[in-house]
Every structure is written in C-alpha cells, then in structure tokens.
From TrEMBL:
Database matches in Pfam families: Integrase_p58_C, rve
Protein name: Integrase catalytic domain-containing protein
GO molecular function term, any single one: nucleic acid binding
Native source organism of the sequence: Nothobranchius furzeri
Integrase catalytic domain boundaries: 1-129
InterPro entries per record: Integrase_cat-core (IPR001584), Integrase_p58-like_C (IPR054465), Retrovirus_Pol_polyprotein (IPR050951), RNaseH-like_sf (IPR012337), RNaseH_sf (IPR036397)
PROSITE patterns named in the record: INTEGRASE
GO BP annotations listed: DNA integration
Amino acid sequence: MCAAMRFPEAFPLRTLKAKPVIKAQTTFFSTYDLPKVVQTDQGSNFMSKVFAQVLKVLQIQHQTSSPYHPESQGALERFHQTSKSMLRKYCLDSGKCWDEGLPLLLFAIRETIQESLGFSPADFVFGHTVRGPLRLLKEKWLESPPTETNVLDYVCKFRERLFSACQAAQDNLANSQSKMKARYDKKAVLRSFAPGDKVLVLLPLSGSCLQARFSGPYVVDRKLNDTGYVIKTPDRRKKVCVCHVNMLKRYVTQDDSTAVSLTTPVSVCASASYLLSEDGLTDKNGCVPMAWLGNSAVLKDLDSFLAHLSQPQRADIVALIEANLLIFSDHPSRTSVLAHDIILQNEKPIKQHAYRVNPVKHRLMQQEVDYRGGLSD
C-alpha cells in the first residue's frame, strides 16, 4: 500500500516465504513506481538476506516497525481488516474461489473515498474518477454526447486536477490528524525511561503468539526517540530488542527500609508498585481492610463454645484469654518472639500458564479470599 495515497494492492500467494513475496513486490514496483522507502514488520520473510539484497539493488531504504506494535502501520492494518471482512462476505456468497474475486474487491476499495484524504486512491493514481458501477449507472440515466478535447488542454487540466486534489487532500489529512490527536491526548500520558532503568516488557508467550504478558525485569540500554527504546533481553533469542513505550512498564522493587508499625492497625494502605500517572495502565492506590478473624464474635458468646468443658476448666481458659486479649483480636498483629527470612533464588517472576481450577477448589479459594478481606487479590 502507498502510505501517501492509500492505494492498496494484494496478491494471492500459496506461501509467505521471501521469494514469492519478492516476486509480488517486484510486480507492484514495475506497475507503478520504484519507491524510496519500504516499511514492513519484522517478519522472517522481510528480514531475510534475499529481501535485503533486492532492496539494495533497487536502491530502496528498508524501515521496520516496532515489534508487536502494529499501530505504526495503522493505514495498512486498517486495510487488512477491511479486506478480510470483504473477503469473508464474498466467500460466504460465492464459495471458496476467493482469489477470483480479489481484483473486484480491490477495485471497490480503490474507488472508495478515504475519510482522512477526501479523495479515493484511484483519483490520485489516475487523475480522474474511475468508471465504476455508479459511474455506469449515471451514464445510463444521463446520456450526454461525447465531446472532443485537445490533447494539450487535457494534459493541462489533468495536472491542475492533480495539484488541486493534492492540496485538498493535505488539508483534509491535517484536519483528520488533528482530530485524532485530540481524541488520543485525552487519555494519553507522557512516559519516559532513562538508560539503566528496570522495566517489564509486554512479550508474547512461548508457544502461543496470540497471548502476551509482561516479562522481566529487563534493563533499558538506550533511548532512540520519544517512543522507542532499546531493551537488553539476555534470556531471549535476541539479546537486544527495540520496544515501543506502550509495551513497557516501570519495574519497582519493594523498599526494605520501610518501617512497620508494631501496633495493630485497623486497615492497611496498599501502595502500588506503579502509578496511573506513570504508565496509564492501572491504579492500585487505596486502603485495603486487614484480614478479619472473627474473634470478637467468639468472645461475646464464649460460654456456648466452652459448654463441653467442666467448670474449673472453663474458668482457667477464660482467665487465660482475659490475660492475653491482644492475641485474640480480630486483626493479626506482629510478634517479636521469632522471625524468619524468605530467600528467593532470583527476582524474576515465575512463569506458569493459567489453568482452569476445579469448581470445588474454586469455591474454597473464594471463601479463603473473602475470609482474608480481599488481601489475596
């Protein structure tokens, strides 16, 4: 697709290896023009040596988008969505011969006026409105005698139409981009990282390219621009990768120097490891109630719980409880009798696939979460 004119082209291929893709791309270049820059994703067919050699011979600069960030090729991705929807509808009506109807679908897309430009892609390539079904219907209803035009006058008017269409398209595109930017900036938050910062990277899971989660922590090597960063990934096949800022999240370690109160608190303020103003992903600030044990309800009706004991035994237990009421509070407190350290092998999170839990176990887990006041979430 031409990014300036939104003029698309598609070829039915049996395989997406480098050589068939190069043949189709050469056909596109020979039909229209040799571009100066070609932008692709980082697929193996586009990153092959053969593809790079062909572009070098044709003196074409190759630019790649950020991995797992298709927004950098928004116009092309939108064309993919539109073409797939049209092909799905065509296959439901005509069967499996989708490749035969592909030229007709491309013709329909090319003659459609683009909202961002105000003109159809065919208007920029051919300089006039193509003779499509609507044009045929107009000619059938409004028959007009053919007019003779001088070749020189036609060429002059043709250039004037292209120049005026280009100016109008630039104005429409600027207005459309300003509206899109205004809508995007309502929720966008400016974030930046410095070299040496630890971050979590949104990467696909091994064995499942359609699922992704934050992995890491990794270290920022350097900053390319406002949105691109070079991240060191020593545990992956590529030791260094370029990531978009939307795929990064700051990694914050727990501060060991935080003082812990010895008194029994009514609630605990759970501090988040990242803030909404920092990456725009989530906000976990707020006070979470402590785990409730329900000891106060037992102490109010202590006689019914001790009814199976004799009177001397009951008196001893009541005296023991009254002497240590702090231990039998509803909120667990901190003890200074002993302490233990939890030693981890490394700071990397454990990667484990999500499995469906048995309904019986799920019910017990939910009771435990409710019992602990939601601190297990």
